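Need Phosphatase PAP2 family protein's 3D structure for a figure. Predict it.
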Amino acid sequence: MPNPLRVALLAILAMLPFVIFPRLDLAVSDLFFAKGWMDSPASEGIRFALWRLSGVVLLAAFVLWLLALVRKRAILRGPARLWGLIVLTYALGPGLLVDTLLKRHWGRARPADVAEFGGSLTYSPPWWPSDQCLSNCSFVSGEVSGATATAIALLLVLGLWRDRLSPLALRVLAVLAAALPLVTALQRLSTGRHFLSDTLFAMLFTLLLASLLHRALIRRKPLGN
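Structure prediction for Phosphatase PAP2 family protein:
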């Protein structure tokens, strides 16, 4: 898990291009925006499959957390602290920070709703709160945040089982897990539901919360101790 300070610094640096070039999000969305793709069954199928995967991983982690707490021992090689970290990553990332705070109060209109792409609302940069949206707004992406939490969970579980997997299998599974938020971001960009910055900062904010939780719950007392 990366150092939280490095992730926070990365998030600050990642915002600079959007400050220097305020219309960067519009330029990127213009490359992806295609109304025909917005109603594509394949696109929606990918979206719901990834969303359901996040729900399955969260439910599994919650059950394993409860079992580890009740039995007071590791379950599937993972102690209660690890499963609790995964559950809290979902709860504090996609749940609290993204859906409860940012999406409800940042007020950023989605790409498909701004005037540049045929809508009636005004575009606003990611670093500036707006009043163009009242609920379920664009900044940041809840689905990308959820996919990032899922990727983190799967990578943590892979770490538990690395001695049982071949190096090739470990690499392949790690790449597939890491690709989840990228595929989700591409789907949200291509359908006009989110800007590039919405997806990028959904990943970074979720990773930052997970790294803070990892430092608090795991790093102070490594697994197996």
